[in-house]
């Protein structure tokens, strides 16, 4: 990574939900590598969270982990405010924490529906609204969606698709409202990505990889690179956009 990239987020403060593993952890590391101080949330694994904090510090940046359940919207809002207070500012929000429910929509109970919406839709909404109130003009709000927001490639993903499609409307509405302040709001739609929840060597991975134009799963760092671009001044004229980072799965 050249010196331009390593410094383009210098002096910025970023907050990432679900930042201890997968795309979230890769995003935390990438933002720190480009000069940002980074705070993030995680749900369970203290050890993984500590490793990511140390990775941030290894780049010479400030890092902090908050253990919360993103189903608790009040906790999400409190954490956004806590980050802004502790770091003295907030420039970048990345809504990454998410559930991946599978199964028939017809057979899905309302409790499962409500829990999925709480984590996948209500938490990003609450975090974005709270962040916008504390964010400097010219800030960035980036939400991790999914390429299945654009299509339903197989049965059993209906509830997940519903939740990720909702984020497109949220992003468009916020982009229109926050544009006068120079705050951009975008959603990144990954495709098959090699994480512990969806490993590239998993039982159905080969068939999904074959549906991409590139014939492979993404590394989480490749998705994080797209997020970092949107977080930077280089993407100041991109807002309200749905960016596919899915290796051509949606072609």
Number of helices: 8
How many structurally independent domains? 1
Overall spatial form: globular
Which regions have little confidence, pLDDT < 50, spanning 5+ residues?
none
Termini distance? Answer: 30 Å
What does this structure look like?
- Strand 4, helix 5 (110-134) and strand 5 (140-144) form a beta-alpha-beta unit.
- The longest helix has 25 residues, at 110-134.
- The chain is globular and about 45 Å long.
- Helices cover 43% and strands 14% of the residues.
- It has eight helices and seven strands, in the order αβαβαβαβαβαβααβ.
- Helix 2 runs parallel beside helix 3 (46-58).
- With 251 residues, the protein is an alpha/beta fold.
- The chain has a seven-stranded parallel beta sheet with strand order 3-2-1-4-5-6-7, sandwiched between helices.
- It has one domain: Rossmann fold (3-Layer(aba) Sandwich), CATH 3.40.50.720.
- Keywords: Oxidoreductase.
- InterPro entries: NAD(P)-bd_dom_sf, SDR_fam.
- One of its GO terms (molecular function) is oxidoreductase activity.
């Amino acid at each position: 990574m050249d010196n331009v990239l390593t410094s383009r987020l210098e002096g910025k403060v970023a907050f990432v939900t679900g930042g201890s593993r997968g795309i979230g952890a890769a995003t935390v590391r990438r933002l720190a590598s480009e000069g940002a101080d980074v705070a993030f949330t995680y749900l369970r694994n203290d050890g993984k969270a500590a490793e990511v904090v140390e990775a941030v510090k290894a780049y010479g940046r400030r890092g902090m982990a908050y253990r919360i359940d993103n189903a608790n919207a009040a906790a999400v809002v409190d954490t956004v405010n806590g980050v802004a207070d502790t770091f003295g500012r907030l420039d970048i929000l990345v809504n990454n924490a998410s559930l991946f429910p599978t199964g028939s929509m017809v057979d899905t109970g309302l409790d499962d529906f409500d829990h999925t919406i709480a984590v996948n839709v209500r938490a990003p909404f609450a975090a974005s609204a709270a962040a916008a109130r504390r964010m400097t003009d010219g800030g960035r709000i980036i939400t991790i969606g999914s390429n299945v927001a654009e299509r339903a490639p197989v049965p059993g993903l209906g509830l997940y698709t519903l939740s990720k499609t909702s984020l497109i409307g949220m992003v468009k509405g916020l982009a229109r409202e926050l544009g006068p302040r120079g705050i951009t709001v975008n959603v990144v739609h990954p495709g098959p990505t090699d994480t512990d929840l969806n490993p590239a060597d998993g039982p159905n991975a080969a068939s999904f990889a074959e549906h991409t134009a590139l014939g492979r799963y993404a590394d989480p760092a490749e998705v994080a690179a797209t997020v970092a671009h949107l977080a930077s001044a280089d993407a100041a004229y991109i807002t309200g956009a749905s960016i596919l980072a899915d290796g051509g799965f949606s072609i």
